[in-house]
Amino acid sequence: MASIRSRVFGAHVRPLQLDLADLSSLKTAVDRLGLDHLDVVVHNAGVALDEPPRRETEDGHELMFGTNHLGHFALTQWLVPPAVRGVGGPQRDGGKLRGAVGATGPGRSAVDPGSPQPFDFRPSPPGLRPARWSYTFESEAGGAAGCALSRPPVHAPATHRREGAPMKVQGSVAFVTGANRGLGEQFVRALFDAGAAKVYAGSRDPTRVTVPGAVPVAVDITDLESVHAAADQAQDVTLLINNAGLSTRADVLTADLDSFRLEFETHVLGTLAMSRAFAPVLGRNGGGAVVNVLSVLSWISITASAGYAAAKAAEWSMTNALRVALAEQGTQVTALHVSYLATELAAKVTAPKSDPAAVARATLDGVEAGLHEVLADDFSRQVQAALAVGPEALYPQLAGRH
Ligand SMILES: NC(=O)c1ccc[n+]([C@@H]2O[C@H](COP(=O)([O-])OP(=O)(O)OC[C@H]3O[C@@H](n4cnc5c(N)ncnc54)[C@H](OP(=O)(O)O)[C@@H]3O)[C@@H](O)[C@H]2O)c1
């Protein structure tokens, strides 16, 4: 709001609470506007989910379809009477809309576009995933509007998947940093369960590595000498898991800058140093893969852990660059985004936490599927989708503030 007002002199802007996924709420939202007439509607909001499983709105529609398509059409239905008044003048006052929807695609025969069905926003029956939806709206005043939307087949090869043969965990030789506890330890266990041939367990204190069969290696990722010594010792690695991390809980206003420095030294520079030291090793061994353990806080910050979030955001950016740079040599780079895990790092957090063992398994599945990013929980998926909407979607406390 403040940004619009600063750029558009004299703009009258006011917020409207609107949930496109809640079809039954849209009329009330429009009524609340109390519009006499309307000239332009810009349908901009949308949801983009990367991965099945299917998610549904309260009304039982597939979430993206229900929000991006049905939500906008329902909103149009309630907005068009004032829009007709705005464009057509008083003689068209009260132009009421009827709508129609048809679906064509596998599993359903084409609906004759000339004889539309009543538009009632019914969810598609289970199993029906039409490849093409069409809509027709007719106003009693004689106007008509139509639209045809194509949706990609649900299992189409997605752009977020890497081309080429994905990494196989079975038979791989892995190196995990921060492997003496928490998520790192669970990665070591999950790697063995998935058939890894050898697992190097990197730790600042290798005597604390407890998983049977793992090869303990001393490594402090903030110490270049130690990083190079580890790479020299593990020349057969095909899968590098940059897991080591910490949280200083550095507050954005009050924490000393050294806390911020330590976060960046560890998450950004430490991970970069490991990736650079192991890149030639991976290249020589056929390409392989790198996993960078990021966070949902790469995409959303909290003031009380601003140092951590800033470092994870920078690590995300660095990971994106690494993915592009290493694609040349056939090395896959997978980022893990996850919110709270039940580990020491989040010991003081009382919010729900994911099981690190399950997250480690899901990440390895993502690696084998050739994913660029693994989003391990709903919150990470929601935050990623909200990024496209803007700060007010991520930080509700900003709503209505200038
Ligand atoms: N826990 C969460 O809620 C959460 C959420 C999202 C992402 N993550 C990320 O998940 C990863 C693992 O964290 P965790 O939850 O398992 O935390 P954790 O239980 O505290 O384990 C952190 C591990 O990283 C190691 N480490 C820290 N600094 C290091 C350094 N300079 N060199 C080498 N090892 C170092 C620690 O070694 P020491 O034992 O020697 O300290 C420990 O093994 C981190 O990248 C973290 O940011 C965690």
TrEMBL record:
Gene Ontology terms for molecular function: oxidoreductase activity
Entries under InterPro entries matching the protein: NAD(P)-bd_dom_sf (IPR036291), SDR_fam (IPR002347)
Superkingdom of the organism of origin: Bacteria
GO CC terms of this entry: membrane
Chain segments carrying region Disordered: 102-125
Keywords, comma-separated and alphabetical: Oxidoreductase
NCBIfam families linked: PRK08264.1-5
Stated family: Belongs to the short-chain dehydrogenases/reductases (SDR) family.
Name listed for the protein in its UniProt record: Short-chain dehydrogenase
Organism: Streptomyces avermitilis
